[in-house]
Amino acid sequence: MTKLYLFILPILIGIITGMFLAYYPESESESSLLTITKLIDGGSPIMGNPNAPITILEWGDYQCTFCYKFHQDTLDIINEDFIKTGKVKLVFKDFPLNGPDSLLAAEAAYCAEDQKKYWQYHDELYKNWGGERTGWITRESLDRFGITVNLNLVEFNKCLDEKKYHEKVTSLHDFGKEIGIDATPSFLVFNSEKIIKIRGNQPLEVFLKTFDEL
């Protein structure tokens, strides 16, 4: 009986641990990092109704192939059916895995935010996605995207020259790593009681099931 107990106990512990990690990507000692305020603060402007009961926190990279696919396909449906109807809100935080160009693009999006054009510029980056580490993100291309969304380029380039948001983006990246983000896109979907982690560009059905759980 004792041998059976010693055999079953590690299995039960593993199951319980696995269930916990499905909702909290890090250990209990670090769960204080995962308050709603800490998760939302410092990222993009909120897309949707700030009072929506469910939040999607997306961790992304502007060069990431699967981030691009999420924004081209799944996000459009979520936006129409859940964000615009006030059921869900979205916050984007940068996790620039693909090097300096991804970091520069992220800084550019926040420079656009200074002119109240964050989401327009964010979308323009993904519309013009040119692959991973292919050199499509340059100061010239960033200016072209700025012209498309009617930015004041003098102010925009001054912001980039001064690296106004460099520390912000690197801090977001560091925070992501601290709470267990290790790939893009990654999502923390949560309400006031539960956090569910989705890793990668999963099918729409995965998001719908998550919304139902919350």
Automatic annotation (TrEMBL):
An annotated Gene Ontology molecular function: oxidoreductase activity
Pfam families for the chain: Thioredoxin_4
Transmembrane domains' residue ranges: 6-24
InterPro entries: Thioredoxin-like_fold, Thioredoxin-like_sf
Domain of life: Archaea
Domain Thioredoxin-like fold, chain residue ranges per copy: 43-195
SUPFAM superfamilies per record: Thioredoxin-like
Keyword line: Disulfide bond, Membrane, Oxidoreductase, Redox-active center, Signal, Transmembrane, Transmembrane helix
Assigned protein family: Belongs to the glutaredoxin family. Belongs to the thioredoxin family. DsbA subfamily.
This protein's name: DSBA oxidoreductase
Source lineage: Archaea, Nitrososphaerota, Nitrososphaeria, Nitrosopumilales, Nitrosopumilaceae
